[in-house]
Amino acid sequence: MKIVKTPPAPYYAVIFTALLGDNLDGYEETATRIMELAKGHDGFYGMEEIGDKWEINISYWRDVESMMEWRKHSEHVVAQETGKKQWYECYKMRIAKVERDYDFYK
Amino acid sequence: MKIVKTPPAPYYAVIFTALLGDNLDGYEETATRIMELAKGHDGFYGMEEIGDKWEINISYWRDVESMMEWRKHSEHVVAQETGKKQWYECYKMRIAKVERDYDFYK
Predict the structure, then answer these.
(1) Closest CA to A21 of A87, A96, A104
(2) CATH code for the structural domain at A11-98
C-alpha cells in the first residue's frame, strides 16, 4: 500500500467498508480492471486499501461531480451489481468531504 | 472487525493511514487503552480498523467539537507523541465530514 498524495483540502473521500463472502470468482480480476479504469478517470486522486475477509477501501476524488460520474461508469456499474449479488456479504459506503489533513514522515 | 453503526449523516470521520516501524514496544497495550478511553468519550461513534504493517483506522464522531476534545485528551496526547517518536514511520490523518452513506446487507 501507499499513502495517497492528495492536493490541499477540500477534496472528497469514498470510504468503503465491506465483508466479503465465500464466492470470490472473478473478484480479483474485476478489482484490478476497475482500479485501472479509475486511474484514467477525471478527478481520481488514488486509493488506499487493506483487507482480506474484511476490507477497507478509501478512494479520493477532486469533487462530487467526478465521484458521481465514476459511479455511473458502465463497467463500474456492472462491478457494483456483481459485488452485491456475489462477492459481498455486507458493506457500508460513506461519502465524505475532507476538510483538513496532516502528514507525518520520519 | 465490524461496520460501525452510525446515525444519519452528517457526522465526522478521522481517516488515519499509517506505516508502522519495527519498534512496537507498548503499541498494542496503548492501542487497547486508547480505544477504551475513546469509547467513553462524548460524541464517539466507533472505529473501523484493519492492518498490520500498513494500517487504516477510521474513527467516527458526532461533530468537530467532540473530535477536537478527544485530540486534546491527556493520555491520547502522550500516545500521539509516542506514536511519532517510536511506532510510526509515516502517517496521514484526514478530517472529513460524512455527507451521505449507504448500507448493503444480504
Answers:
(1) A87
(2) 3.30.70.100
- A31: closest CA among A42, A20, A22? A20
Say if residue B99's pLDDT is above 90: yes
Query: Residue A10: is the preceding peptide bond cis (ω within 30°)?
Result: yes
Which of A3, A88, A95 comes nearest B99 by C-beta? Answer: A95
The distance of A28 to chain B (nearest Cα, Å) reads 19
ipTM: 0.94
Question: What does the pLDDT look like over B30-47, one tens digit per residue?
Answer: 999 999 999 999 999 999
pTM, two decimals, is: 0.95
Class of B22-98 per CATH? alpha beta
Domain boundaries in chain A?
A: 11-98
Q: CB contacts < 8 Å between A and B, how many?
A: 117
- Asked if B50 contacts A56 with a C-beta cutoff of 8 angstroms, the reply is yes
- Cell digits of residue A32: 484490478
Which residues lie across from A8 on neighbouring strands? none
